[in-house]
Design a protein that fits this description.
- The protein is built from 11 helices and 15 strands.
- By secondary structure, it is an alpha/beta fold.
- An 8-stranded mixed sheet has the order 3-2-1-4-7-8-9-10, with helices on both faces. A 5-stranded parallel sheet has the order 12-11-13-14-15, covered by helices on one side.
- It starts with 6 loop residues before the first strand and ends with a strand.
- Mean pLDDT is 85; it is low at 37-49 and 150-158.
Length: 423
């Protein structure tokens, strides 16, 4: 069944290229990138991934080559519109491309993060219309949740179990054989496509709600003059403690998934109060932290119109090169409204991409001017390892303030003259 199988992948973003690289270990793989027209759109993830040196992946300029593929995998981003509705336009365009070019008998796998029912209600009709074929008879459809990995992991097989689903048992068995040959025993067969779609959302919603809860608790504790980081360290000794922390690492992809589920819940007649409240808290955290920073600087009599501030880290999370529309950018935008002279540095983020998508110019570390305040927004490993010595080198004097949002600096080693603010 697997002899002479060729795999086609549509998409080269944080989902598509890692998938292509995984399959290239076992099969000939051709990849078509149709996301270039979305460059500059902050709602679309653009990872700095490139085809690894020595890889057998073939990047094609024309999708007609997909007629050679027995298995087509669609892995393109689903975005959220300004009105907080799922924008499936890129996914459906990818389905058009697949439909026009796939051969009879091909299996098409949707590997984008979509709400339960989207594959069957949205994707299959487009595939049928543009192929002139009938799903389940002339071609077949499967689903696997979107998998995002860091650039450092791109040439390694994912360690988490890979969920797969098919529109019927024979399709599921076929996909299980193919995926097991790549991911070994890490494949899990879902009962249906809708269950697999929904399963992806469970993890995302859990993280969304728990992150919102921690941000809410941090705001409460701050008003009570209680150190949130010390609270979490103490609470962690409890058997049932769940390890979540407050901060700005609101993964944009997770927010998109959460809004998709809100939209679908409302469409079927349920008002998801907890999820809506969680999203509202997470969306406002950047502005809330910015206002807290301004308040603290006012109390220290730092002149806002002339104060120099360095912000460290703008990627979606620590030790990641992926840039997303996270709450870090909300914080920076809010701070700029007060006239602060802000410099932004991030050793992992792509400078050109950051300026193109978000209008933020990154300053190389060695060119940073001495600052009145340093904000550790997304502290990568080099910052965590460098500790106070690294941060002090950025300050004008020790009569300055450091905003350690994630609490990565040892407060017991803080120089006496430096003010330290933590969530």
């Amino acid at each position: 069944m697997r002899e002479n199988l060729r795999i086609g992948v549509i998409g080269m973003s944080v989902a598509g290229l890692p998938i292509a690289n995984d399959f290239a270990r076992q099969y000939p793989v051709i990849v078509y990138d149709m996301e270039e027209e979305f460059n500059g759109d902050p709602a679309v993830d653009h990872a700095p991934f490139k085809v690894p040196y020595g890889s057998t992946i073939e990047v094609v300029q024309e999708p007609g080559r997909f007629s050679e593929a027995g298995l087509l995998i669609i892995a393109v981003p689903v975005t959220i519109s300004a009105s907080r509705h799922a924008d499936l336009s890129l996914l459906l365009k990818a389905c058009e491309v697949a439909g026009r070019n796939m051969k009879k008998g091909a299996v098409v796998v949707i590997a984008s993060a979509v709400y339960p029912g989207a594959t069957e209600e949205k994707c299959i009709p487009v595939l049928e219309r543009h192929s002139g074929l009938e799903a389940g008879k002339h071609f077949f459809v499967g689903f696997t949740p979107e998998t995002k990995r860091q650039e450092a992991d791109i040439s390694s097989v994912a360690k988490q179990r890979k969920i797969i689903a098919g529109q019927n048992d024979p399709v599921l068995d076929y996909l299980a054989e193919i995926y097991t040959s790549v991911y070994r025993e890490q494949v899990f067969k879902a009962e249906s496509i809708r269950i697999a779609e929904a399963a992806e959302f469970v993890t995302v919603i859990q993280q969304t709600v728990n992150n919102a809860l921690m941000n809410e608790l941090a705001a409460i504790f701050k008003l009570m003059d209680v150190d949130t980081q010390e609270v979490l360290q103490t609470a962690a000794v409890a058997k049932d403690f769940l390890n979540f922390s407050p901060g700005l690492s609101g993964n944009h992809g997770k927010m998109q998934n959460s809004y998709q589920l809100v939209q679908r819940a409302l469409a079927v007649g349920h008002h998801p109060e907890i999820l809506i409240a969680a999203l509202r808290v997470n969306e406002s955290v950047g502005n809330s932290i910015a206002n807290a920073i301004i308040k603290e600087m006012n109390q220290l009599n730092l002149p806002l119109q002339s104060a120099a501030v360095v912000v460290l880290g703008v990627t979606n999370r620590e030790d990641s090169a992926v840039i997303e529309k996270s709450r870090v950018f909300d914080m920076i935008e809010e701070l700029q409204q007060f006239g602060l002279k802000i410099q932004v540095a991030d050793s992992l983020a792509d400078a050109e991409q950051t300026e193109l998508q978000f209008g933020i110019r990154l300053t190389p570390w060695e060119e940073l001017s001495p600052a009145d305040a340093v904000i550790l927004a997304m502290p990568h490993k080099e910052i965590r390892d460098g500790g106070w010595k690294l941060i002090l080198a950025l300050l004008k004097s020790q009569n300055s303030i450091v905003f350690d949002i994630k609490g990565v600096l040892d407060k017991n080693k803080k120089p006496e003259a430096v003010e330290l603010w933590r969530l």
